Amino acid sequence: MPHQSLGGPGAREFAVAQTAHALYLVQINFIHGTPAAPKTDLKSCIYQWKQGQLAVVEEFPTSGGTDAAAFAADGHIYLAVSNSLTRDIRFREDTVIYRLQT
Questions:
Q1: Angle 43-48-52 (CA atoms, 0-180°, nearest 5)?
Q2: At CA 67, angle to CA 53 and CA 71, rounded to 5?
Q3: Using CA atoms, how far apart are residues 42 and 39, in angstroms rounded to an integer?
Q4: What are the DSSP E strand ranges found in 1-102?
Q5: CA-CA distance, 4 to 67, in Å (whole number)?
Q6: How many CB atoms within 10 Å of residue 64?
Q7: Contact by Cβ (8 Å): 45, 54
Q8: N or C: which end of the chain has fewer CB within 10 A?
Q9: Do 42 and 60 meet the contact criterion of CB atoms below 8 Å apart?
Q10: What pLDDT, in 10s, does the model give residues 43-58?
């Protein structure tokens, strides 16, 4: 039985990040549209577990996002997001490392 549906265009990957006080789920969006007319500049979402369900707490830009991984270092939580596509350039988009503000 489904507990909750998460919307959004072109979801490709999910990552979990946890702090001492909160649980986050990151949804990475890849592509929307058609092969002839792709839309790769999408917003991906960070959800926080609140009162028994996930709620969007932040959106951030991705460009053909394909993967994400959360890791802890130096007392902070980081999120690595691999991007792959732009509208004009295929398979040449930088990976971005974000520091989560928790």
A1: 130
A2: 70
A3: 7
A4: 11-18, 23-29, 32-33, 38-39, 41-50, 53-63, 65-73, 76-83, 96-99
A5: 22
A6: 25
A7: no
A8: N
A9: no
A10: 999 999 999 999 999 9
